[in-house]
Each structure stands twice: as structure tokens, then as C-alpha cells.
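Escalation from tier 1.

The customer reports that the assembly of two entities below gives different C-alpha cells on two consecutive runs. Tier 1 could not reproduce it. I'm attaching the input and our single run for tier 2 to review.
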Amino acid sequence: MKGISGKSRAIIEHVKPAIDNGEFPIKRVEGERVEVTADIYCDGHDKIKAVLLYKHIKQRKWNEVPMHLISNDRWGAYFKTTQTGWYEYTIQAWVDHFATWQHDIKRKFEAGQHIATELLMGANMILEVAEKSSTKLTQKLIGWAQQMQSPIDFQSEVNIALSPELSEQMYRYGHRSNATMYPKLLKVQVERQKALFSTWYELFPRSTAKEKGQHGTFADVAHLLPRISALGFDVLYLPPVHPIGTKFRKGKNNNVKAAPDEPGSPWAIGNKEGGHKAIHPQLGSLDDFRALIAKAQEYNMEIAMDIAFQCSPDHPYVTEHPEWFKWRPDGTVQYAENPPKKYQDIIPINFETDDWQNLWRELKSVVDYWILEGVKIFRVDNPHTKAFAFWQWMIAEVKKDAPEVLFLSEAFTRPRIMERLAKIGFSQSYTYFTWRNTGEEIKEYLIELTSTEVVEYMRPNFWPNTPDILPVSLENKDEPAFITRLLLAATLSSNYGIYGPVFELGLNEAYSGKEEYNQSEKYEIHHWDWSKETKITDAIRKVNLLRKGYKALQQTRNLMFLNADNAQLLAFIKYDDDKTELILTVINLDTNNQQAGWIQVPLYLFHLPYGEAYTVHDLMTGNKYTWKDEWNYVMLHPNIAPAHMFHLEVNPIHNPKQPLVVNVVE
Amino acid sequence: MKGISGKSRAIIEHVKPAIDNGEFPIKRVEGERVEVTADIYCDGHDKIKAVLLYKHIKQRKWNEVPMHLISNDRWGAYFKTTQTGWYEYTIQAWVDHFATWQHDIKRKFEAGQHIATELLMGANMILEVAEKSSTKLTQKLIGWAQQMQSPIDFQSEVNIALSPELSEQMYRYGHRSNATMYPKLLKVQVERQKALFSTWYELFPRSTAKEKGQHGTFADVAHLLPRISALGFDVLYLPPVHPIGTKFRKGKNNNVKAAPDEPGSPWAIGNKEGGHKAIHPQLGSLDDFRALIAKAQEYNMEIAMDIAFQCSPDHPYVTEHPEWFKWRPDGTVQYAENPPKKYQDIIPINFETDDWQNLWRELKSVVDYWILEGVKIFRVDNPHTKAFAFWQWMIAEVKKDAPEVLFLSEAFTRPRIMERLAKIGFSQSYTYFTWRNTGEEIKEYLIELTSTEVVEYMRPNFWPNTPDILPVSLENKDEPAFITRLLLAATLSSNYGIYGPVFELGLNEAYSGKEEYNQSEKYEIHHWDWSKETKITDAIRKVNLLRKGYKALQQTRNLMFLNADNAQLLAFIKYDDDKTELILTVINLDTNNQQAGWIQVPLYLFHLPYGEAYTVHDLMTGNKYTWKDEWNYVMLHPNIAPAHMFHLEVNPIHNPKQPLVVNVVE
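Tier 1 run:
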């Protein structure tokens, strides 16, 4: 019987959330709730009590929240995270003999049974606790116990027995005999709010020069900050800014040979001028980079840096650390390949190297280096082609000292792999949104992201396009398609981003039948007209402003799809945790034709009254409509307004905040 | 990086089955399969291999089964259990560089690339393995490697590279560099076949006397064995056979006072003549009990003993071990109660006693005592009112020395509690079947039992009635209701039982509006006419014979409900693991009226041909019908035949076994 707590009768099991049985932390941002539930019970008919215990790992003592029975032996409680870093939580439960006694004596008294002996039993329990509690309460408890020992009329004593004051004292000071402690410490990775709510703009710095034909610089990028900030973005993501390899450099449209003046892909990192800690000289100096970061801060923006742990053949690592790479029998270093395709301009790191510990330290030092230079967000390129164990270790180590640092996982791969990357610590994840087009596809995917365990650890970041992907939904499509995809991304997900200049301009030409841009910026320098304002630009500004104004849009968890009698109308409500702010979005998925139909507002779920008229206020146009009951009519034309974003102004919701309205300028 | 296997890139997760993440064993009987699946993958594009490892805990070395990719990174394999006791299983996976090389060289060769360097890489891998393998193979491997080092025409070398013989050698002797071992050892509790397939008959020995007014004895029970065995039962379950308490003894119909000549409830165990290891003198001696067990063996039957760990007030434990009970301030021992109800004839054991270790040892010694006397099956009374930890320890300890011993959990309580009892080791469980009446109720419940994780650890035992329960489905009902409930229990579940004499006789009178029998045998001695044969008796004999003849009915896992256009017709197929034996049962749930309708045979699921006629052979009547395609017509009258039990004689099934037919004698 060694190791058995024979007298502990309370059972605690199936504690949720617990990712892979607690192997991985769940994720929250500061201020978010952690709702914990578990099956808790004991043998027999005794009453039990249970408490949720939680603390920041830097705290020594547990905080305690009483748990409540939900139904069918499922108990629940919640706590709020207030600090970045890691929290731990677990559960304690015990057979509550005093509560059992209270329950029994009430029943017996009501049935007219003699309860003198029962009162003596209660008195004994109270006296036991009295010894432990403070002086003032001790006297009170002793007094109650004495009355039970010499009862007057039973009714008075039963009143004392059941009094909230006594219950409270017995709960607080009663000894939790043979309590069961759930054996696992479950963890929460708490990050800053930006992890949950962020708006990304991606551009290639080298394409930002004022003059056509010139190489853009950090200074040029800095000039664009006011514009991008005014559009409502708060993260500016730059592809790698390091020296670009010269050996096997790729040319225009991924040509295997580059002309002498071609700039190469920024992801082919490293040449004789340096590697992952160096800056491509044509972009400027380290000081210029620092100046860019400083200016971004002025505009409440952050620079997100690309972390692509791979090397060009002339990266210094290749000669300094040949043991980190695979070598072929012909003496050459093994380049990346997916046979029969070859990517000779990129050398993968061999994570099975015997020198893996030094490799890991060096790669982490790259991240540390840029953190010291002020970078707090990293977009990680293809994390799924590097060892999972490395990321898990690296992210945890970095966050120990710098919990504010965020990592976005750029993995478009198989579901289990994308999930694992999120579990091992990435703050945000690219998703399949880019390829979810029909209403059914979107609903099914969003339900997976928001209503399954995935919601606990994966924060989606929706991208309608990237430099690698011109999806079918945008290829050869007009502005309405771009605006529709933008609105879907920006309203469904609180984190979203666009590969900006080509999106704003509505570029839609694919390269030779592939899902890629023709004349991709990955291989050449472009010159964009940053002063141009398209309809798309206008929609971006509007939706970003609404995202900033409404809490309901600043999270991805609270989402409900609505019934519609027209499959081309995607309707959903997003709401804040209190369900006091309701934003009802209707998007016309048909980017060519007007679509109309009836959508159902589930009044009962939001405790809204039936039979009364209420106002829905379209925040995109300022128009107000009077709706009644559940089913209401909408009509959307792609060229006029591809979507409604209604603020529901319904009576029982007393929301003091004036709704923020973006007025349309036709 | 302490404790991190930095070079292990293969991930193994979500291994199933694993009850509560492996905290509890799954259950099997000898010969049953354990199908194991897991998500297995690595970073990047390398190929992986995975093996399922398993062994009986008494074995030292692992057995190994290659796993196969099912889809979407899910892999699977299975093994068969052949021995009772416990098995362990886990998974090993690794990046298979040789398989990756094979995959790549094939692609490159097909694309016409130069592969001389690739062949050198393969030769190196082969030579590395050659050093480790046996002499004969070493030569062969070296030969192949040498040819790759000096290729003739590439085609020959690629043929060698991809040859099954080389693949086999590299798999067998190749070193599993940086293999990942799943960190948990998952367990299987393997029991004898009876755990899965058993047919129970319950009777009160004291009601078996030949003469009315006499107290039945073990010898009287022995006289009934031929009859009960001939009905097809293989377990005879007896309520407690111990001395019955005299203090606060209950009278007829649970009267709080017993008349001097009333026998009391057998569950009020213990008096001055002894406790749980003693025998009630009126039933006979220990030798008589041994004789009963011996005679049961002759009839291929077993005696199941009742284990009810509670005491009457005059049980010897109460004076010998007062510390095992709760005492009231008035000096009396605490009786069982559920306020305001009192059960003064039963004293619960206090599992929170400080002396719990001695208590546990003593209770286990009761089980050990009867095992030595030849009892191998225990029906445990109300296990949910005793500490779970005790059962878990006791069952595991008993099974270490006597894996053949089975425990049936008699808990009719809340779902989580019933599940836990099954998880902690009970071989079989009473269920909610007793209260599942409509087709929807039955389907929903059976799907829970057979198609969720519950199937891995809980073996249902279906009881249409018990001495405690005369359910609504039988109260004031006629024979067809009894036969319907019998057939449901006997066909849906491979373990089932009846509280026999009252069931055979169709007794249906409840006591004062309760779900209990009037004049329950629990409180008085009855005298049954054992020579009487009812229609119910006839149905019992038939269905039990079919259960013995058809494997499909000897397990509860392989069950599929069929569509029917009449909700009163419950239709389902049970099948053996190979899906070669198909038993299609249709039961008319309306016990008053004839019901007819169309039912659908899902031909595609059983690989049966469309468009051909096939024979369905009613094993209850001997009638044969010709069916075609999926939808076929049935008609059942409760007074003629409340059910069909069809053996499907369909062409592609070559079943040499002659179907066993029970001929009806009208």
C-alpha cells in the first residue's frame, strides 16, 4: 500500500483545459479568464468541496477559488490572469463532513426526528475548529457549540447549524481532512495583449525607395510609418533584412540563375558580410534599423522580424560550423531539396548534429541579439522544417527573461504539425484561412479553431495573401474579392495581416499557373505608388478602426455563426466576455452578384427580448435599421457594400460607450 | 537542455487506447486484439518508421509490430493478447534516413538527374549496417554497396536501392538513430473469456427447498444445477450466504421490525455465528458449499459469490474492530442512512479510519478466503459506497496471484462513478440497460457503450430485473414484455443475467408504487415451482443456445444498428472480428401489437454484393427468407415471435459452420 493515500476519498479527474494531459500550457493574454472544469466526486453520499488553486509561477502561495457543481459531477471555477509569464493551476477536493452533517440534520429535523445526538456531533466538529481560529471567532464558535450541546428548541440550533456565518467559518478554518490534490500542475502561458489582437502589414523594405530603380532603405520604410499606422496597422513585418547569399542566387520568378544585378531572395541568408546577426548593407546600418524601431514606437507600431533558420551557401556558419550541416560524399554541402526539386540557394541546418547543444545556443543568441535591439515580435519562417524540441526550448528560454516577446509560426502544413507548433509555444499561427472560401468551409474551420480544444493553445492569424501565396480567391479577381477576403480575415480573427502593397493595389496576376505572384518581390525590387488610395485601402482603414473600437473584435474565441437562408451570406456575431457588446457581421461571399436573404439573430442566447423592435447600426456606413424578432432581411451588393457590420443596439444591453461609426465618403 | 533529447525528431502523441492518459488499463480477454493508433510525424520532409511494442508484464523483452500510416499522420498496428494478467504497450518511432534516401533517389532517377553522389551516400549507409549484421548478409550488403560505389547503368543500382530484400535488411539491422520512445507504458488488463461472455442466473438459496415452509440449502441448490445449466446459464449467482444479523432485522417488505421467525435480509451480514468468512448455518456447512461448487463445475457452471462489505450491528467486526466504524456521541455505532431514511440493520464501514491498512488487508482476506474455497467470480454489492482506492488496490492484488478471478460491479449510480469503478479494475458492470426502453434510448446507450472510449474498459452486464428492481418495463406486464427484455439483454450484450425464478414465472407485482417486487425475497423465503416451464423459460433456453453457437453474440463491441422505417422495430447486426458471421436481430419493442416495416441491411459495410438475392435464416424458428438488396420487410407479432434472429447467408461469406437452428415447438 506504499504510495497510496488510503483515506483520500475525493476523486478529481478529466480536468480541463489540459492540452495533451497537461504536457503543454494553454495560452492566455493578460486579463483573460481561465475557466477550469473537472469531474469531482467521492464514493457514497457525502458532500464534497473543491477549490481551484492557481498562482503565477513567481508566486509562492496558491490563490484559491471555490468550485461549483455544474451538473453530473462536473465542477467549475475560473480565475483571471493579470501578469505575463506562466501560471499554474490545479484542484483540491475533499469530503466535507460538516456540510454532510448540515445536509443531514436539516432533512432529519424536517422529518420530525430527534436530533439531540446529531447536534452533539456538530458541536464536536465546531469545537475542533474553534481551537484553530482567531480569538474572537473562537468565542463565537464555542458559544454555538455550547448551545448545540444544550439545545433549547432544536429550531434555534438548526438555524445556527445552517447559518451562512457558521458555514463560512467552517469552510475557512475547517480542516480538509484527507484532501485529494490533483497530481498535475497545469500551466498557462500568459502573453501581452498583442498576442491576441494585432494587425499586420508586410512589405519588402527594398521596394520602398522614393525613386524607381533605387534600393529601398530602413529610412524609406520609416517614411511610410505614418501612412501604415493611419491605416490602422500596429505590426509592420519585414522579410529578412540580412545579407543575401551570392552563390546559386535566384533570379526573377525563381529563375535558377540570377543576373549579376539581381538582388536574390532575402530568405537566402548570409554572405561574406555576415549572417543572421548582420544587416544587408543596402538597407542601411544597424543604427538605421534602431531608428526605424524607435520611429515605429512613436506611431504605436512594432517591427516584426523574420527568423529564417537556414543559410545561403556563403553564410559564415557553413565554414565556421561545418558540423551543423550535412555534407555529401562529393565534398559539397547538402542543399535543400524536395526531389526532384532542388533549392541550391538554401542550405538547411542539420538538427541531428552531434553538436546540437551549441547549435541551439547559437540560434537562440540570434533571437536574443535582436531582442536587445528592440525587436519584440518574430515571424518564424517554416518552423516545421526545424526540430520541434528546439522551438519548445528556445521559446521557453527567451520568454523566461522576456515574456513580452511574441513568435508567429509561419507553417502551412499538415494539421498535427501546425497544432504542435502552437502547443510548443508559438504565440500566433498562420492558418488554412487562405484556402477557406465557401461559407461551409469557413464555418467548419472557424468552429474547429474556436470551439474545440484548439482554441486553448492556437491563436490564428489570418492572411488573405502572402508573398508566397496568391490564392485562387484573389487570382484575376477584382476589388470586391479583395475587400471580401479582407473583411473575413479582419472580423473573424482578431489577429490578421496582409502582404500590403500588392493587396492594396489589387494585384492579381499569377506566375505560370501557380498559386504565386508573377514577378514576385521575393526575387526582385519593385516600386509601388504609396500615395495611391484604392477602394481596398479605404476598406482596410475602416475595418481596422472598428477593430480598435470594439472589444468584440479583439478576440477570436467568442464567435457564433447565424442561420441564413442564403448560403452566399455568411453571418456571425462576435461578442465580448460579458455579452454586452454584440457585433453582427454579414458578408456577401459572392463577389460578383448582389445577394439577399434572411438571417436569424439568436435572441435567447444573448438574453434579448422577443417581440420588441431594436436597432442595428451599420458601423461601416452609419445607417441604422429597425429589426424585430429573430429573422431579418439583408441585401448586399459587392460593388456597393460587400458587408454589414452591425452594432446591435438592443434594450437590455446598457452599453454607455457611444458606438464608433465610420462614415462613408462616396 | 538537461533532460532534452535534442536529436530525437520523431513525435509520438495522442496514443489510443489510453484511458485517462494511461492512468488505467484497457481491458481485453485472452485472444482479443488491441488496436493501437497514434499521431506520429517529424519536422521536415524525412520519412519515418514506427513500431508498436508490447509484452506481457512477466516477459522481459518487447515484441515488435511495424505500424502503418492510416491517414493524416495517424498510424496504427495491433497485437493479440494470449495470456491473462497485464500487458504493456508503447510506441517507438524514428526518422528513417535510409527510407528517405530511397524515396529521393527514385524521384531523382525518374527525373533523369545524375545520381552518382546519391549512390555513394546510400553505399555508406549500407556499409554501416553491414558491420552489424550476420556474416552471410554482410557479404551481400557489402556487394550491393560496392556496386553503388561503381555503378554500371544507374538502373541496376536503383533497382538494388529499392529492392524489398535490401529494405528488409536495413529495417532489421539499420540503427534507429535518435529514436523517440513514447514515455508512457500503457496497460491492458487481460482476463479469461468469461469476463466477456457469461450468462447469469440469480436465485436465493433459501428459497430452493423441496418442501414449502422449509429453508433451502446448498444441497437444494445443487439439485437445481442440471436444470439451470440446461437453460444455458454458466454463472449461478447467490446473494450473501453468511450469517444474518439479528439486531434491527428487517421484516417482510422492508418492515423495520421483523417477527421472530422472519429470516432477515442476507445483505445484513454477520451475527454471533460469524461474519464474511462464515456460512449461514441453515444453508449448510462449508463442506456443503464446497460440494455445490464442485457440482457446478460438473455442469460447466460457476458459483458467483456476493461481496457486500457492510455489517449488521451484531457482526463480529463491530466489537473486534470498533475503530473501523463511526461512533455517535451517544455511544452507539453509526448505522447507514440517507436522511431522513435510516437503515439500522446495516452498519457501513468507515473507510477514513486511521486503521485503513489493516481494514483493507482484512477485507481482501475475505476475498482470498473464498477464492481458496473455489470461488472465481464475485458480484460486488454497492461498490460505489466504499472507497475507490480500496477496490483498485484489492482487485490488482488479487489478480496478481489469481488473474482468473472476476469482479462484477453492482453500481446503479451516476455515470462518472460507474465509469470509475470499471476503470479501477472491475471485470464487468451493471448498467442502465434496466431503464432503457425505447429504441432511441437503447441505441443511444449502446452507442455510448460500444463506440466511445467506454468500450475499452467497461464490460456491460445487462439485467432485465434484479431482486432490488422490478422495472417499469416489466411491472404488470405479460410474457411478451419479459421475452422482449430478455432478448434485448441476451443479444445486445454478451454478458447478461436474470434474477431467475421470478423472471421465468413472469412475476410483475410491485410493492406499493415502488420499482420493487412485492413480497421481495430479500426479506422472506419463497417456494418456487421449479418444474414449471413458461414461454419465457422456452425463450431463455433458445437464446442462450444461440449465444453459445454464434461468436458474433459472444462480444459486445461489434454492433451496428440498422435503419428501420418503423421506430418500434429495433434492428441491429452483430458480427465477429472477421465480419464473416453476421447475426441480424430485429426486435418488436411494442409488446402489445404487431409491428411491421422495412429495415436496411448496409451491404457495403460488410462487402456484400448488390443485386443478388440472399437467404436470411431465422435461427429462432428455422424459417428461411429470401432477401434482396438493402431494404427488406419484416413483420413481428408479440404473441407469435417478438423477434427475428437472422443468420445472414450471403454469397461472399464462406462460412463452413452449419447454422445452429432452434426449432420451435408450437
